[in-house]
Structures are given as structure tokens and as C-alpha cells.
Amino acid sequence: MIHSSPARFALLVFTSLILLWTAMLSLPIASRTGEMTPLADALFTAVSAICVTGLSTVDMSGHWSLFGELLILAGLQIGGIGVLTLASILGLTVTRRLGLRQRLLAAGDTNPMRMGRDVSESQAVGLGEIGGLLVAVAASLVVIEVALTALITPRLMAAGYDFWHALWNGFYLAASAFTNTGFVPLPGGLEPFNTDLYLLSVLAIGVFLGAIGFPVIFALYRYITGGGWRAHKRLGLHAKLTLSTTLIFVVVGWIAIAGLEFANPATLGGQGFWETLLSSGYMSVMTRSGGLGIIDPVDMNGSTLLVMDMLMFVGGGSASTAGGIKVTTLAVLFLAAYAEARGYRDIQVFDRRIPNEVLRVSVSILIWGATIVLVATVALLQLTGRPLDIVLFEVISAFGTCGLSTGLSSEVSDPGKYILAATMWAGRVGTVTLAAAVAASSRSRLFKLPEERPIVG
């Protein structure tokens, strides 16, 4: 299966891990009360952890025992890195070498377009660089999470936590931020820190670094160590496109949230100018897939929820800990529309040409993503009877593995939990991987059908 269909192998391993975590989270030892956790709640939490989503049907700070919290932490770390990438890292550690099969597995995990097809090596990370990328993944995970923990722990100690509790909760928050999961272990959540510039800035930086993706972190490392701006050509198209698009979306979301909520007394209306800028900017970063919210979406205006729906649906960078259809996907679609409007035959950006195959995959991702969201939204509307804006927000948060919640996840019946869990699963494994897994193999035809053009537009 590894050789014939890497996508199916990835789905098999990913789903098996979810089932294993479900079984372990159901055990009495995983709950603080010593009772078995209901299957729907255990499955939902397992999917939310492995898919680095952050939605929850139980109180995360009060329901799980230390064993349960360790399981959740391990799950979100595995989900954040990527199952096949982790397997390749372990293989590299044990054997001290990386064979072609391991390189292909890791390459498919970082670029789903590789699965089941031959692709050009003129891309973000070639097969020859996979070893360096895997080292960068492991190193960035350790270094960034340790650094975030070192920054968060003193702030929690200043808030009244003793050293060991501050260290544990600091590491939990650091891992949750960098993996873009959104679980908060603190009893009062982040409410006591709603206007804390220091802690919110640290969490936002962690979420941003996780959302840009490991290939971009790897590219930035090579860029910095290779001479900085004098070696600007070393920063590839994928990194440039991801960083520029992400920054644009953060700024646009920042302005939109501040502009739509500044007069809302339930959210930003009672805050000063600088507090409004802090809260709106922080929430804009969290829509990248972070989920560590400080404002209850239920209190927001419907217009703000719609803006956040769009931001969550896009998500973060490819091969990152974030979800969504990815910023590069939307960038390619906008660039294609611009090229068509200007009459260009090719999609061009940053002095590079993007092949039409990438555009076809981008269109497929958008259509399949929108279809998954539509089906899940209709099903939950029928089950819950809640307003469209509330249900749509929860579904897109699940699909984009964001974790911002209107509270619907903890209120729905078991069938609703299964629907949201399936939405998280589909959003995390990716529509490209799903399509590659459904297809038996890459097929080529030895003939061409007659061409005829329908009228579009």
C-alpha cells in the first residue's frame, strides 16, 4: 500500500491513531473522576487532538486526569508534525539514513500533490532536501516550544501559579499554540489575560510560526544562514507566497474585526483604543487556526462571524500545523483570476510561472472544501435547529481545525458530535489526500476526445 497508494496508507495510519487515542481516552484512568468517558466525547477529543483542532465537548481543565492530558499533548504533537513526517523522523533517528521510500513518504506528507503522481522537482522542497526538512521540523518543534514555555511560565507564576503548575501549563499552552490546536488547560481559560499584552503576544507569535508551515521555516533558516538579503533568491516562491498572503490576511482580519466590533458593547465596545487594537489583532491571528480565543464568538456581530468564517476557511500555510484550504491555494486562485483579467496565458508572481496543474489542484481543493462544509452545515442545521451563522461558524472552525467555538460542540447530541468529528478529520487530512486515496491510481489516456467549449460566466 505504501508503494501503490501513499495517500491510502496515510489515511489508514491517521485513522488508526485516532481510534487508538479514542480507546485510551475512554479508559477510567484518563478521567479525573475515574469513570469511563462516553464514546462520543472520547472520539471527539481524540479527533480534535490528532487533527489539532481544539474544539471540545468536555471541560478540558476539569475532566481529564494527568494521564488524559498527557495523551492529548502527545496527540496534538503527532498531529502537528504529521504522521508520516514523524515516522520518517523516527526512521532517520534509528537507522541514521533516509531511504527513497521514507523520502517519498515525508515528501507526500509535506506536499499532498506528490501522492499518486509524478511531479517536477522545481518546487518548495525537493527529494534531496527532505532530510534537511525533517531535521528542521524536529528542531523547530523543540526549540520553538521550549522558547514559548520559557516565556509563558514566568507570566503564569506572576499570576499566582506555583513553579511546577506554571511550567506544566506553560508547556501545554506553548504546544497548543505552536501546533495551532487551541486547547487551554487553565481553569478560567484565557479570560484573566484578555488584555495582557505580553502573554497574548507570545501566544500569537507561537500560532503564527506554526501556521506558516515547516517548509517556510526551513526556507527562512536557509535564507538567514545563507546570507540574508544578499541571497534573496534562496527564498523560494512557496515561502514568499505564504508569508505575503498570510500577512495580508492578518492585517485584513485585524482591520475588519476592529471596524465591525469597536461599537459592540459585548466585545470591544468597552475597551480603549490600544486594547481594541490588541484584541482585534490577536483574534485575527487566531483565525489562522490558532483557536486560543479571548472573545466569545456568540457575542460578536453576524458580519464579524462571516469575516471570521472566511479567514478560518482559508487557514494557514501548506504543510503547517494549521488547517483550512491554505493561503497558497487562495493566492493561486486570485493570481489566476488576475492573469485572466490581464489576458496573460500563464500565472506569474515573484518572477516565476505557476503551472496549470497547481491551479487545477487549487480549484479542486476549494470545491471539495466548500462541499464538505455545506454538507456538514445542512446536517447540523437539521439536527440542532440553531441559527445559520452559529452552525456555519462551528462547522468551518472544525473544517479549518481552528477551535474557535460558539459553544455548539458541547451542546449537540452524539450524532452532531460525530458529524463535527468527521468534518475535523476531513479538514485535517486534506482534500487532496482524500481525492488521491479515493482514486485507485494516477491514470493516463492514450487518446484525446474531440474538443468543444461550453459557455461559462
Automatic annotation (TrEMBL):
Domain of life of the native organism: Bacteria
Compartments (UniProt record): Cell membrane
Pfam families per record: TrkH
InterPro entries linked to this entry: Cat_transpt
Keywords in alphabetical order: Cell membrane, Ion transport, Membrane, Transmembrane, Transmembrane helix, Transport
Membrane-related topology note: Multi-pass membrane protein
Keyword field contains Transport: yes
Name of the protein this chain belongs to: TrkH family potassium uptake protein
Residue ranges of the TM segments: 42-58, 70-94, 130-154, 166-186, 198-221, 241-260, 310-337, 358-383, 418-440
